[in-house]
Design brief:
It is built from one helix and seven strands, in the order αβββββββ. It has 128 residues and is of the alpha+beta class. It has one domain: Sandwich (Gamma-B Crystallin, domain 1), CATH 2.60.20.10. The protein is globular and about 30 Å long.
């Protein structure tokens, strides 16, 4: 491959890489729980490797200036991890613990309209 072709390939790779960045921290699968804005692991996402007592402080859901409070509709839970979600800040209110992927929080009974969709204000994550 000549120098000009190599430069074009590198420029294209950098462009594609930049276009795929949604601004949230990236953590490899299996090293953190990943929360999603939409069901079936769609929309904005964010890796969460540590507890978050107030999702108002975690930016990234729904666009600029938005946070993750009451904005989670699906969760990826890697093997060997568990996540406990809470209705209110500071780990208070109703809670539920999940040990596997949750593609649709509508399908899990909870305190907000009968389910957990868009109902999570704090989250604890841990490796088992």
């Amino acid at each position: 491959m000549n120098r000009k072709t190599s430069a074009i390939v590198i420029a294209l790779l950098l462009t594609v890489s930049a276009a795929c960045d949604d601004g949230s921290p990236s953590t490899p699968t299996g090293t953190a729980v990943v929360i999603y804005e939409n069901t079936n692991f769609g929309g904005n996402s964010r890796a969460v490797a540590a507890d978050a007592s107030d999702l108002d402080a975690l930016p990234g859901c729904g666009g600029p200036g938005a946070d993750w409070d009451d904005c989670i509709s699906s969760i990826r839970v890697p093997s060997g991890w568990e996540v406990t979600v809470f209705e209110h800040d500071n780990y208070s209110g109703a809670s539920a613990t999940f040990t596997s992927d949750i593609p649709d929080l509508h399908q899990h009974a909870g305190p907000c309209g009968g389910d957990w969709d868009d109902c999570i204000s704090a989250i604890q994550v841990r490796q088992k």
